[in-house]
TrEMBL record:
Compartments, record wording: Secreted
One function term, GO molecular function aspect: metalloendopeptidase activity
Homology family: Belongs to the peptidase M36 family.
Record domain Secretion system C-terminal sorting: where: 830-902
Protein name: T9SS C-terminal target domain-containing protein
Alphabetized UniProt keyword annotations: Hydrolase, Metal-binding, Metalloprotease, Protease, Secreted, Signal, Zinc, Zymogen
Coiled-coil ranges from the UniProt annotation: none
Single GO biological process annotation from the record: proteolysis
Pfam families: PA, Peptidase_M36, Por_Secre_tail
GO cellular component, one term: extracellular space
Matching CDD domains: M36, PA_subtilisin_1
Amino acid sequence: MKKHYFYSFVFLSMFLMSATMFSQNLLSNSKYQTIVEDYLKQNKNEFNLLENDFNDIIIDKEVFSKSTKLTHLYLNQRYQGIEIFNATSSLAIKDNSVFYYANNFVANVASKINSTSTQLSAEEAIFQVASKLNLGRVTGLENLEKEGFKYLFSKGGISKNDIPVKLVFFLSEDNNLKLSWDLSIHTLDGQDWWSVRVDALSGEILDKTNWMIKCKFGEDHTSHRHYTTNDLENKTSTFKLFNEESFMVDGSQYNVFALPVESPNHGDRSIVSEPADPVASPYGWHDVNGFPGADFTITRGNNVLAREDVNGNDGTGYSSDGTSALNFDFPLNLNQEPIGYQDASLTNLFYINNMMHDIWYHYGFDEVSGNFQQKNYSNEGAENDQVLADGQDGSALNNANFGTPPDGTNPYMQMFLWSASYDPEPLTINTGALAGSYLAAYPAEGAGNNITGPSTTPVTADLVLVNDGSTAPTEACSALVNWGQVSGKIAVIKRGNCSFVEKIQFAQNAGAVGVIMVNHNNPDNDPNYTEYVNMAGESTPAFTIPSIFINNANGEPIIAALQNGDVINATIVNTSIYERDGSFDNGIVAHEYGHGISNRLTGGANNSGCLTNDEQMGEGWSDWFALMVTMTSDDVAEDLRGIATYADGQTASGIGIRPVQYTTNMSVNNYTYGATNDDTVIGTIGGEPVGWNEIVHNVGFVWGTVLWDLTWAYIDKYGFDSDLYNGTGGNNKVMQIVIDGLKLQPCSPGFVQGRDAILAADMALTGGEDQCLIWEVFANRGLGVNASQGFPTIMTDQVEDFTMPDENDPSLANCTTLSVGEFNQSNFKIYPNPTDNNINIKVNKSFGNVKVTLFDINGRKVLSQSGELNNIMTLNVNNVQTGIYVLNIEGNNISMNHKVIIK
């Protein structure tokens, strides 16, 4: 295994400097000039570079990391003073030498340049983009600033922000560098923040990407939602948030779902007093000027402005006011329209944004690294970029998004409401042997469809089986002959040979107060009880009675009991019709904020386009951020953690919005690196197989799975610490190493490069104490030594591998994860390794009776076998899951461990 951390690839992504970043730090002005130049000259062949390729580079950003003591330099490649778009290399210096280098320079630049003279002006480029992206008519466009090849234009009637434009070279798919205009436009509706490259000769749009990351939480889930009848889980463990008292005592208090409570499904609200961290927010959460005393009494401060946006215009909406006492204790009743608890919602949104700011500040998402603050108290990094968080945003449903521009420009968070879900158990039988709650579907919704489902007003009555006097009397395809019995009762009808409209009409005409439709065309084996609801059809005039649809397995016993003469009393009611507020799902808010962290740290804070390649892992990091801040001391590695369960209408134990829950249990979550290839089927939607190309967010899910395994490997080794700020547990250590890995990895990273950045971060932090642990986790999920990510903008060339580094690799010298018993290597041969069938233990001398045990990386025994070890002993592992294991051999004459890989 190479011990160096070099990466070289060509990528198509996006880069745009903030207008406040016009002054650049040329390499010649840096004290690291000689170190950088010497390193590039000495290693140019490693990256297939010519000296002319790096004789015109600038330092875009210089960041010192307190945790690793590394100085991160983000180097931009230029040609004749014009930057090459996203040709940004990451270089880290420690002790005046290059510790880490991630190469993104374009090779043989001079031969690829198409022109150095423009045919299209910067202003004309804006008009081209407005026209081709249908952004509206440009009006009143003015050039506000110009410096070199950079311009700043006014909003022009099409953008929420002034429009920065810069001349760059863009690397096209034919491997040529095309002179282009690079610009960004934040659309007036706030839904898109386009970063675009326009050919400076032809006006053609060469590349565009959207800084507004739309997480698509709510799409594609209603057709295969999983319900459980488990009670809500209330975890009462509480994080120790920090040990010191705030520098600024402001008397603030907030009634919120305080971390680690994830949502209303996971616990209750509580009052938190003066929660601002004294290091990250020394003047409290309502300061913006760095002087004692709150500058705002509303949900606004240095880190975030939380406001409502019910009308969806992305404007300056209402913010909750805690008055001069900063008392944000507002009532909350979730059984009402969300606008009725807007103050409580905005308070929670304000709280979680501030918590994410303060927590991750301690791990290196600080001012110099490009975090989100209106005022930077350290005077490092760019200011005026606190998060603008819109709650109850009316422009969409079932989603959330986050837009991350370069350092010095405000990011936008939009939190939407989630569609009202019907009660999955609206039917309750009140009497008899069948008493209990039952799953049921509601009528379909659509134009002209007036069939009604249950309301919040309960309908309670005895059940009656209908009779229309035909050969199929219970199908109600004609007027009911037992109308006297049906009147005032809930009619039970079998699905059959006429429309639902007719059936319900005949029941209502007979005086029924409700209808239970029993499916009999898909008997007993229908787990998706909602599929037949969409056949409900239309009705004229509108119905006045509620109807529900139950499956055959539940319906036939009811019919049989009625035919037996049993009296059955039942209630039909909808207890869940209100939309849910995403701002109460702390996991979603943390997830969105996490996009800002990963985007600002990858490639440097001045570059917002380093996570747009196909193999990028942004969704995985964001899920992981959410999981980390909602962990409790009661959690265990094999717990099942779903994402967005509350917002998606599930219980706390629901599957969430990913293919499976996050867990180290490979029997539940067995996804490995190979699953990221496009042609791999990972699940179903509506009964049809779905590949990664159709659920692109699940590429990140695999990365999140690896990070979650890594988290528990660290906790198993170092324990859990509830102090999120200054703790020393495994959870704290993994939070640090992931943040440092983000800073070290190259722009447009793939999984292998993300892995190597984490390994490099461990080297910088500990000298390599946890290299073995990290390798074991990554290899277990297919990111072993020989894994290949291919080209990070292609989703069909990943190759997984489960191989660990050689035990004698010098980078593993400081590992403290596994203890290997002393033995003479020449006496043993354990083969094949990796294996998928048998493990053979061959010895050249007798060791007598031994016990051979296979443990997984968490120390759990998988299987064991006893016998005489005097030649060859074979262990059958055919039924053991893929992964990294420890083979332990114990006897009177031997005690040893050996790592084995099962593929």
